[in-house]
C-alpha cells in the first residue's frame, strides 16, 4: 500500500482542459491536419456523422440517439468487434485495444474487464460529445501512448463563454428490433464568466432478433449516463473547467460469451486550468488533472445449465495529468505536451464447485502502472503548396505486481521473474503533403514501440471464447515494434471528390498467444492453454478508394471500397482482418428534408486466420434507408428521423462478430429531438 501511495505522490497533480466548443455544431468530417492523409475529426450534433461534399449539407440518421459505436463506424479506418448488443470494441487499421490508445478529453482510462467487455468508449454518451478525433497509425494525439494502430480521443461538449445564454435539448428514440428505447435531456448555460452543460441519458433494450426472426438470447442491456461540465473565467483569458461523468450499465447480456454483466460502473472526473492569449513562443497553455474509477462484475446466474458458477469482478483506477503548450512562430505551428498517469488493474475469479470449497484465483494481480511521457508536434508550411507534419513522443513506464498471491502464481510458470519492470518506449512520425489545383499528394512514415498490456504480461488463465483457449501472460515479453508507411492521392472539384489511400505496418516482436501443450486448461471445455509470445515479424496492410459525386444541390452519391490484409512470419493469416468491403449511399436534400438510401456489400472472408481459431464467413449485402427533417416552430427547433436497417431482413454475421453471433435483422427506428 505504501508503494502505491508513493506512485501517486510522484505524479504531482495540476490542472487543465480543452477549449470550450459551441453548444450546437454542424456534423462534418474534415482532414484535421493538412499534412496527414488519414487524420480525421467528426463533429457530433443532431445526426449521424458522415462524409460530405459540395454544398456540405448534413445527412439524416439516428443523431444523438445513436451509440458512440455507431458514430465511430462512420470514420473510415474504424471497425468494431461485437460480443453483444452493447459496448463494442473499436478496431483501428485492423488493430484492436492493445494497439490503439483511447482517451476522453485527453484523459487516460482503462477498461476493467479481462474479456474486454467494457471498452473506454462505453462509458460516455453521444449527448456529451462534441467531436471524435481519430489519428491513424503512429501519428497519435499528444496524450496517446502505445498507439501503433492509431488513437481515438472523445472530445466532450462544452457550452463555452459568451454563447447562447441558455439552451435546452430533449431527445427520444425507439428501435423496433429489440425494443431499444433512448431518452435524453441536457441543458447549457453561458455568460462571459461562466458556462455549464448538464444532462442525462437512459438506454434500455430487450433481446434483438436476427434475420428470419431468430431471437438472440442474452442480448439485452440498460444503462444510465449523467454528466456535468463547468467553466469559470474569473479573469479574462484565465479559465478553470471541471467535468464529472457517471455511467452505469446493468443487466448487460453478451450472447457471444458464457457470462453476462450484472454491473459496469464508471466515474470520471477532471479539473483543469487554461491560459489564453499568451505572448512569446506559446499562445495557449492548458493543464488538466483527472481521476477515474471503473468497476465491472461478470455474472452467469441468468444462464441455464451452468456447470460451475463463477464470480469475476474487476476494477480499474487511474489518476493522471497532462500539460499542453501550443505555439506558432514564422511558418511553424507546434505543440509540446507532458502527461503522466498511475493506473491499477485488479481482477479475480471465484469458482463455486458443488460439494467443495470455493476456488479462488487472481486473473489480474493488482498491477500498478506509472507512466510519464513527453510529446512534440510541429506543422511546417514550407511553401504555399508544401507542408510537413512531424510528431514524436517518448515515454517511461514502471510496473509492479502489488498482490503477493498473484506474483507467486505467475512465478510458477516463469521462475525468476521480477516483480517490477521499467521500460522506455516511443514513436516518431513524419509526413509530407503537396497541394495544387484541387490535387493533394501525401506520404508519411513512422516508427514506434509499445509495452505489453497487463493481460499480455500478467494475465492468468483468461479464457478466450473465440478460440476456446485459456491464456497466460508472459512477463518476459519484448517490446512490440512497428514501422509504418502511408500515402494518399486525392482530387476534388466543385462536384467530385476522389481519393486513394493506403497504409502498411511492419512489425517486429509481434505479440500474440500461441499454444503451450505442456499446460492444462482450467476452463471446462477449453481446447488448451496459450501463452503470449513474440513472433519475429508480422504485416498489416489497409487500403481504401473513395469517390463522391455531388450531382446537384439536392442529390449526391458516396462510395467507399476498402481492403485489408494481415499475416505473420509463418505465412499464417492474422485474425480479425476485414474482407473486401463496399459502402455506397445516395443522399437527397430538399428544403428542410434529407434522406439516404445505401448498401454495405462484403465479400466472402476467404483469407482468414484459421491458425487462431477463425473460420470463413459468407459474403452479404445489407441495405438501409432513412429520412428526416428539421422544423422551426417559434423558438423551438424539432428534428424527426425515421429509418430502416437491414431492409431485407438478411441473416448474417461479420468477420468481427465474436463467435459468429448474428447481426440484427430488419430494424425500424424513429427518433425525435427538441432544441430550445
Automatic annotation (TrEMBL):
<dbReference type="GO" id="GO:0009279">
    <property type="term" value="C:cell outer membrane"/>
</dbReference>
<protein>
    <submittedName>
        <fullName>TonB-dependent receptor</fullName>
    </submittedName>
</protein>
<keyword id="KW-0472">Membrane</keyword>
<keyword id="KW-0732">Signal</keyword>
<dbReference type="InterPro" id="IPR036942">
    <property type="entry name" value="Beta-barrel_TonB_sf"/>
</dbReference>
<keyword id="KW-0675">Receptor</keyword>
<keyword id="KW-0998">Cell outer membrane</keyword>
<feature type="signal peptide">
    <location>
        <begin position="1"/>
        <end position="25"/>
    </location>
</feature>
Amino acid at each position: 500500500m505504501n508503494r502505491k501511495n508513493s506512485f501517486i505522490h510522484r505524479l504531482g497533480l495540476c490542472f487543465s482542459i480543452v477549449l470550450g466548443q459551441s453548444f450546437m455544431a454542424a456534423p462534418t468530417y474534415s482532414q484535421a491536419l493538412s499534412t496527414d492523409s488519414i487524420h480525421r475529426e467528426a463533429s457530433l450534433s443532431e445526426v449521424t456523422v458522415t462524409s460530405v461534399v459540395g454544398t456540405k449539407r448534413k445527412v439524416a440518421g439516428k443523431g444523438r440517439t445513436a451509440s458512440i459505436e455507431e458514430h465511430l463506424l462512420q470514420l473510415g479506418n474504424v471497425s468494431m468487434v461485437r460480443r453483444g448488443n452493447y459496448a463494442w470494441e473499436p478496431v483501428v487499421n485492423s488493430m484492436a485495444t492493445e494497439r490503439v490508445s483511447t482517451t476522453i478529453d485527453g484523459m487516460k482510462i482503462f477498461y476493467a474487464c479481462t474479456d474486454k467487455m467494457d471498452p473506454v468508449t462505453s462509458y460516455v454518451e453521444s449527448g456529451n460529445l462534441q467531436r471524435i478525433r481519430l489519428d491513424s497509425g503512429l501519428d497519435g494525439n499528444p496524450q496517446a501512448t502505445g498507439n501503433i494502430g492509431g488513437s481515438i480521443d472523445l472530445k466532450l461538449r462544452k457550452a463555452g463563454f459568451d454563447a447562447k445564454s441558455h439552451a435546452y435539448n430533449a431527445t427520444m428514440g425507439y428501435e423496433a428490433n429489440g425494443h431499444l428505447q433512448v431518452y435524453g435531456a441536457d441543458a447549457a448555460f453561458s455568460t462571459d464568466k461562466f458556462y455549464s452543460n448538464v444532462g442525462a441519458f437512459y438506454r434500455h433494450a430487450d433481446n434483438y432478433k436476427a434475420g428470419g426472426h431468430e431471437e438472440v438470447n442474452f442480448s439485452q442491456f440498460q444503462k444510465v449516463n449523467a454528466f456535468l461540465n463547468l467553466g469559470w473565467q474569473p479573469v479574462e483569458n484565465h479559465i478553470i473547467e471541471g467535468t464529472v461523468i457517471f455511467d452505469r450499465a446493468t443487466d448487460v447480456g453478451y450472447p457471444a460469451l458464457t457470462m453476462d454483466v450484472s454491473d459496469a460502473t464508471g466515474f470520471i472526473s477532471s479539473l483543469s486550468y487554461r491560459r489564453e492569449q499568451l505572448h512569446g513562443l506559446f499562445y495557449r497553455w492548458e493543464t488538466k488533472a483527472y481521476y477515474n474509477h471503473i468497476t465491472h462484475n461478470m455474472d452467469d446466474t441468468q444462464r441455464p445449465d451452468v456447470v460451475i458458477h463463477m464470480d469475476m469482478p474487476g476494477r480499474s483506477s487511474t489518476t493522471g495529468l497532462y500539460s499542453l503548450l501550443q505555439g506558432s512562430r514564422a511558418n511553424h505551428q507546434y505543440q509540446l505536451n507532458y502527461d503522466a498517469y498511475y493506473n491499477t488493474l485488479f481482477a479475480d475469479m471465484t469458482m463455486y464447485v458443488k460439494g467443495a470449497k470455493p476456488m479462488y484465483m487472481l486473473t489480474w494481480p493488482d498491477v500498478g502502472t506509472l507512466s510519464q511521457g513527453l510529446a512534440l508536434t510541429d506543422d511546417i508550411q514550407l511553401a504555399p503548396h508544401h507542408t510537413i507534419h512531424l510528431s514524436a513522443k517518448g515515454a517511461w513506464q514502471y510496473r509492479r505486481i502489488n498482490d503477493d498471491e498473484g506474483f507467486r502464481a505467475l512465478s510458477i510458470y516463469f521462475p525468476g521473474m521480477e516483480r517490477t519492470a521499467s521500460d522506455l518506449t516511443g514513436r516518431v512520425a513524419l509526413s509530407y503533403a503537396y497541394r495544387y489545383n484541387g490535387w493533394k499528394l501525401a506520404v508519411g512514415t513512422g516508427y514506434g514501440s509499445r509495452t505489453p498490456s497487463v493481460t499480455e504480461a500478467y494475465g492468468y488463465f483468461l479464457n478466450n471464447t473465440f478460440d476456446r483457449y485459456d491464456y497466460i501472460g508472459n512477463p518476459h515479453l519484448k517490446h512490440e515494434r512497428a514501422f509504418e508507411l502511408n500515402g494518399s492521392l486525392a482530387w476534388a472539384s466543385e462536384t467530385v471528390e476522389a481519393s486513394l489511400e493506403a497504409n502498411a505496418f511492419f512489425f517486429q516482436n509481434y505479440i500474440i498467444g500461441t499454444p503451450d501443450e505442456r499446460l492444462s486448461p482450467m476452463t471446462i471445455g477449453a481446447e488448451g492453454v496459450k501463452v503470449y509470445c513474440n513472433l519475429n515479424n508480422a504485416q498489416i496492410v489497409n487500403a481504401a478508394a473513395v469517390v463522391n459525386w455531388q450531382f446537384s444541390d439536392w442529390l449526391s452519391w458516396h462510395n467507399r471500397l476498402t481492403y485489408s490484409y494481415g499475416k505473420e512470419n509463418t505465412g499464417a493469416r492474422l485474425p480479425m482482418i476485414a474482407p473486401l468491403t463496399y459502402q455506397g449511399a445516395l443522399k437527397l436534400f430538399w428544403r428542410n428534408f434529407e434522406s439516404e438510401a445505401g448498401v454495405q456489400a462484403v465479400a466472402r472472408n476467404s483469407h482468414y486466420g484459421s491458425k487462431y481459431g477463425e473460420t470463413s464467413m459468407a459474403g452479404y449485402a445489407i441495405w438501409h434507408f432513412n429520412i428526416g427533417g428539421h422544423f422551426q416552430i417559434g423558438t423551438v427547433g424539432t428534428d424527426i428521423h425515421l429509418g430502416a436497417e437491414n431492409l431485407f431482413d438478411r441473416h448474417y454475421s461479420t468477420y468481427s462478430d465474436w463467435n459468429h453471433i448474428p447481426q440484427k435483422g430488419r430494424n425500424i427506428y424513429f427518433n425525435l429531438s427538441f432544441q430550445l
